[in-house]
Amino acid sequence: xxxxxxELQTSKIQFENCxxxxxxxxxxxxxxxSQRGGIATLELDDTTMNLGGSIFCLVPVHPDVxxxxxxxxxxxxxxxxxxxxxxxxxxxxxxxxxxxxxxxxFKFIGKNDHMPQAYFGNEVKAxxxxxxxxxxxxxxxxxxxxxIVTLADKNxxxxxxxxxxxxxSYNLGDSITVNGKSAKITMGASPFGKDSKTENDILLTISK
Length: 208
Prior knowledge:
By secondary structure, the chain is mostly beta strands. It contains one helix and 21 strands. It has one helix at residues 94-97, and strands at residues 4-7, 11-16, 19-22, 26-29, 39-45, 48-51, 55-57, 72-78, 82-85, 89-91, 104-109, 117-120, 124-127, 129-134, 144-151, 157-159, 162-165, 168-169, 175-178, 181-188, 201-206. The longest helix is centred in the middle third of the chain and has 4 residues, at 94-97. The radius of gyration is 17 Å and the shape is globular. The N and C termini lie far apart (43 Å).
């Protein structure tokens, strides 16, 4: 496909056990006169999605709405899934300005020997992103650094991000357990990205 568009209403696009190639961009859209909003879910299960362009999530005119529950995009990656974004991502400032009504969430669910990953090849602008990471069913036993999110652009960062790990609020660097081994999630420099010096990537480190 050349392009994918999804409204910020309660909806889901799901792919399982496949490879999806999108030549251009993934757009999340919101009709400016709508008084309803919901969670628009993109779910990848043991799937690789390659985007040639960027992820855009723009809300025109910043409507004066008061949703019962926040609206926004939800990315769910589980098992051997990879979201490869050739360029970058741009999320509207309304997600930072009105978090009571709008939110951005990434959910990474480790499964068996695989921790899902997201890679952004260029600039990312995103504030107040919620990262929900679940490693309870992750069976990786080899110590090392496993990238969860890699930002190739050294000037990009997830500002004011919040983390949940295994269903609980998490502070980066706190100790967790993966398959019986001590581990932690940190913001660091991925050894597998183009920029191996800037500490703006989200990493899972499993100790010996």
